[in-house]
């Protein structure tokens, strides 16, 4: 040990020889601490009503007006959809262009204008990153959501899209706090797996780059150990559930927020090939109500947190601005009044619950009485289509609250779900103890169930579903060694963000959406008059959240979670 101001003697080197010269530290040649200067962001500055000197603002120029004797610039840094108004000398304004990164130094003073209470009187403007304003695809004009999806690396710079990034962060923080309070352990489950737990076969296969060689690609069709990088076929996960079940039987209650992959080509505003799924498992429960209650408490907590947050306030303000700008033509995105109604419906809890059989009867009566017209006639065996789910949310939930639908037919659900049991513990019909949570407009948001914990019953069900003999021997082991009754759920996280933000298309709440390339290519618009004729506007200091979904829902949808 080296001690400040002391001389160490008798120290031997690694070879056992006495050191000829020892390090003396009489005077420090290093720093033990640093003075951290907290940088104030635009959001904090705008909330600071008192005047202040020596203020530094870092950000990007959203707009600049250059006049003969003075200049004005709107500067933002992504911490809020709003901008700081900077008052500049003409020579400083001349150095700035829309989109450029800058550092502005000056004083925070009361504004002489009526649109803001304070403004930054700039003493020094320092360009940090140049911007080719003429060639930059992002211009202060309207641009379509379809076009924005073709430039995902630039799309987050639009204040409205930056707001969606902050919404994602806010909701993740709220969920993390909720599960921590509930005593759940956050876990990380594998991305690469050996099974398709949903049994739908819509998986991405994992292979090494060597498989690009035709001979190697042919070899990987074999199931011999040497034909695969991992010795056996591996896939990108379609759900973390099975691994979470294993972890839950060690610590009781677990959850994860993990990427999930589905190789399905559903051409809808609700589907992606890569998305995030929140999943949770809890042990020692034989009641589906325990799982349903957990989901309700979780979403009530999230919506309440959002209601009280700056992000939530800005989303509603942006929706208000968008509604004013568009008048009655608000497109497919949700107006502020409807968004408030969504949040209120989710915050209040006590959501209605209906069985699958009663839901089918409700739909059939509506069709027979002329209250609704469906493309697909509702039948017990065919399952619920998206139009059916929307009608249930609009009627049972009154278009305001989420709706639980429980006890689906076993033939429509995966092998791991436990049969529905009655009050006396006897199996009831051909249904399983499960639920889907339907929300207005968006349809299915959450799916959950009690898991089959009895080894013999599970093995028999796996045989009936055609998954016996697959790489799930380890999953059966969970039932052989200390199995307990348990249940869990999965929530489509990106869909939740759509519902909370009022954005119609899930591809617009994901920074870099991954979907079928052929289907995505069809959406690239033919822009008349060049790429700058359809770009994004500013609306009273707030960029409107305009992500209108022009996707046509395919008649044949694959309904799964999410």
From TrEMBL:
InterPro entries with a match to the protein in the record: Aa-tRNA-synt_II, aa-tRNA-synth_II, aa-tRNA-synth_II/BPL/LPL, Asn-tRNA-ligase, Asp/Asn-tRNA-synth_IIb, NA-bd_OB-fold, NA-bd_OB_tRNA
GO molecular function terms noted in the UniProt entry: asparagine-tRNA ligase activity; ATP binding; nucleic acid binding
One CC-aspect GO term: mitochondrion
Keyword presence, tRNA-binding: no
Keywords per UniProt: Aminoacyl-tRNA synthetase, ATP-binding, Ligase, Nucleotide-binding, Protein biosynthesis
GO BP term, example: asparaginyl-tRNA aminoacylation
First-tier enzyme category under EC: ligase
Top-rank taxon, per record: Eukaryota
UniProt cross-references to Pfam families, sorted A to Z: tRNA-synt_2, tRNA_anti-codon
Keyword presence, Repeat: no
Stretches assigned to the Aminoacyl-transfer RNA synthetases class-II family profile domain: 165-513
Enzyme Commission number(s): 6.1.1.22
Protein family (similarity comment): Belongs to the class-II aminoacyl-tRNA synthetase family.
Protein name (Swiss-Prot/TrEMBL): asparagine--tRNA ligase
Species assigned in the record: Hortaea werneckii
